[in-house]
Amino acid sequence: MRQMLILLSLLGMLLGSRWASADDDGEDAELARQLRQAGEIVAAQQLVEDARRRRPGKLLEIELEKEAGRYVYEIEMVDARGRVWEYFYDAATGRFLREKLDE
């Protein structure tokens, strides 16, 4: 199944404005909106807040991917030392899955 990537800007996400599609064709962005409206995925904002509690930093990007038949949010944050951390959450439940230092 085709992997879907959704790239969000911090401003857009926090203000609730349009999702920005990684490929700018709008199809993936529309799918993400539909999934959220249907209650199939949780709002990304609550997961960003959780990632910030785990390691304070600045949001770089959020991606929504399909992995092993489920949607997964990947949230990238940069910490005060300039290191980039990736946090993975089950998009349907909001459950934290793992973190990874992006080297």
Characterization of this structure:
With 103 residues, this protein is of the alpha+beta class. It has a single domain, classed as Nuclear Transport Factor 2, Chain: A (Roll), CATH 3.10.450. Helix content is 27%, strand content 36%. It has three helices and six strands. The chain has helices at residues 10-15, 27-37, 44-54, and strands spanning 6-7, 20-21, 58-67, 70-78, 84-90, 96-102. The strands form two sheets. Strands 3-4-5-6 form a four-stranded antiparallel beta sheet, covered by helices on one side. The termini are far apart.
How many individual helices? 3
* Percent of residues in β-strands: 35-45%
Main β sheet profile? 4 strands, antiparallel
Structural class: alpha+beta
CATH topology: Nuclear Transport Factor 2, Chain: A
Order of helices and strands: EHEHHEEEE
Fraction of residues in helices? 25-40%
Outline type: elongated
- What is the CA-based Rg, rounded? 13 Å
Q: Can you give the mean pLDDT?
A: 78
Task: Find the count of extended strands (DSSP E, 2+ residues).
Answer: 6
CATH class annotation: Alpha Beta
Distance between the termini: 28 Å
Low-confidence stretches are 1-25
Strand order of the largest sheet: 3-4-5-6
* Domains (count): 1
CATH architecture: Roll
